[in-house]
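Q: What residues go here?
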């Protein structure tokens, strides 16, 4: 034992400073080459070469299973980009399934004391109301002139008072709409007011329809009356859906889509899809999807995730991640997984709400496509439909995080869809209340091995530089480091030598 230690000490003493310079320089060069190769491979394929080899080849040899849901997923919320675009650059849409202010949003405020709607969201609604429910010819009808001012009022009580004032003059459809939306405290009361609005709205629509070709002013009035009528019928259908008369709601929505096929801006098909899912009429759901999901760029999270739900329904009841890892995915399972990946890349925020990893809040009146606001609006109404399909949430849980391994680097290169807009976080913070933590798009982080190699390269390069500048001093440090490193081993060997007989130890050393 002592001979081995003395020979090691003699070997360290014979090493010259040039050896340490060469050693650290070679180590720095090798680690730098590895770093360059890893970075090139990551830029081209979006993953680490060392990590891919270890997962694909070493883990099966060690008995591991490659799960579809990697534990080291790139779904953590990254820091906000300092160079965000303005909110105006993001297209904000009216939520097709927005709630009633008086019967639902205000009730939430009464119970919790929190405001579910932001000023920005309500201001967008006020602009929508002025666009859809007013026109330049409102001065011809006194009640409409009052309502034109009412839609601009910021105070809810002032709007409600103006609506009552308009109704004292005549049956005004838009006045009934305002009262149904903001004054009614129950859905039944809102439905009653919308039925009164429907009578007044149909009367105005028939009159303006006969005069629409008499001039530009009458055309604008007819366009306004059409918007009012469509809005009333749609909200009546939503009232029927909320009151449990789902089949009646489906019929009303279908009739509305047939009567006004060009008014796609209202996205009535999303209301229809939700109602058909409630009836578990999956064949009709598929027929609606075939009409609105026939292009490469899907319109909304409702389209993407409903298509994924239908494909998952075919295999989810018998899906097992362990069995799938052994035998591979079948064609139907592969289609379901691809549909889930397609949906997740369109809006990556939805799965956390469907899997109840993040708490839901009341959806806003406006949503941002592919944003957290759209995810909340979708999950708020569709979570029950996913729970109803046996195994669907389990399949989503096992596969959704795998989407981020396929997204190329940088993120601007879309895998299936157009690039994810970078202004969504800013817009969502304006649309969602302060007490809600806004989800941001998962940033593709650098793999561990690239960071480790970069650190190793920097460390060895620093050692090489110090060894070149101070060879003798670094030699002393290296000897001290090696001595300290071998000290525990020397201590163990001394203990073993003291315990074992000298003859036995002599025979072992000879061997």
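A:
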């Amino acid at each position: 034992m002592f001979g081995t230690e003395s020979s090691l000490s003699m070997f360290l003493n014979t090493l010259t400073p040039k050896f340490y310079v060469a050693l650290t320089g070679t180590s720095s060069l090798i680690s730098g080459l590895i770093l360059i190769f890893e970075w090139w491979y990551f830029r081209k394929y979006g993953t680490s070469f060392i990590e891919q080899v270890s997962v694909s080849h070493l883990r099966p040899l060690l008995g591991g299973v490659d799960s579809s849901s990697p534990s080291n997923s790139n779904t953590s919320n990254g820091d906000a980009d300092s160079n965000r675009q303005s909110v105006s650059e993001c297209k904000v849409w009216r939520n097709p399934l927005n709630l009633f202010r008086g019967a639902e949003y205000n009730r939430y405020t009464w119970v919790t004391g929190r405001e579910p709607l932001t000023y920005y969201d309500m201001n967008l609604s006020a602009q929508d109301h002025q666009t859809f429910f007013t026109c330049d010819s409102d001065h011809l009808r006194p009640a409409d002139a009052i309502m034109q001012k009412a839609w601009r009022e910021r105070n809810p009580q002032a709007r409600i008072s103006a609506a009552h004032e308009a109704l004292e003059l005549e049956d005004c459809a838009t006045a009934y709409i305002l009262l149904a939306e903001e004054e009614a405290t129950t859905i039944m009361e809102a439905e009653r007011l919308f039925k009164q609005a429907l009578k007044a709205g149909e009367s105005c629509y028939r009159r303006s329809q006969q005069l629409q070709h008499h001039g530009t002013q009458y055309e604008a009035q007819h366009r306004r009356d059409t918007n009012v009528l469509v809005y009333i019928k749609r909200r009546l259908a939503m009232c029927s859906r909320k009151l449990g008369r789902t089949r009646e709601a489906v019929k009303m929505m279908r009739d509305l889509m047939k009567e006004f096929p060009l008014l796609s801006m209202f996205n009535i098909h999303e209301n229809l899809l939700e109602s058909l899912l409630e009836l578990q009429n999956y064949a009709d759901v598929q027929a609606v999807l075939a009409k609105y999901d026939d292009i490469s760029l899907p319109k909304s999270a409702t389209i993407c995730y409903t298509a994924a739900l239908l494909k998952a329904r075919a295999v989810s009841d018998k899906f097992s991640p362990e069995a799938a890892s052994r035998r591979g995915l079948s064609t139907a399972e592969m289609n379901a997984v691809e549909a889930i990946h397609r949906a997740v890349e369109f809006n990556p925020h939805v799965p956390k709400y469907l899997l109840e990893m993040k708490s839901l809040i009341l959806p806003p009146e406006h949503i941002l496509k592919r944003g957290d606001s759209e995810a909340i609006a979708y999950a708020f109404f569709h979570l029950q439909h996913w729970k109803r399909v046996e195994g669907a949430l389990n399949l989503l849980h096992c596969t959704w995080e795998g989407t981020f391994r396929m997204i190329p680097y940088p993120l601007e290169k879309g895998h299936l869809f157009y690039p994810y807009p970078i202004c969504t976080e800013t817009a969502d913070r304006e649309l969602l209340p302060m007490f809600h933590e806004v989800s941001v798009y998962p940033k593709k982080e650098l793999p561990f091995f690239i960071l480790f190699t970069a650190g190793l390269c920097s460390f060895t390069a620093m050692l090489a530089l110090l060894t070149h500048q101070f060879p003798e001093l670094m030699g002393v440090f290296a000897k001290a480091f090696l001595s300290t490193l071998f000290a525990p081993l020397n201590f163990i060997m001394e203990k073993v030598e003291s315990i074992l007989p000298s003859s036995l130890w002599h025979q072992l050393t000879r061997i």
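A: Context that may help when evaluating the design: Residues 62-88, 409-415 have pLDDT under 50 and may be disordered. Residues 96 and 267 are 6 Å apart (CA to CA).
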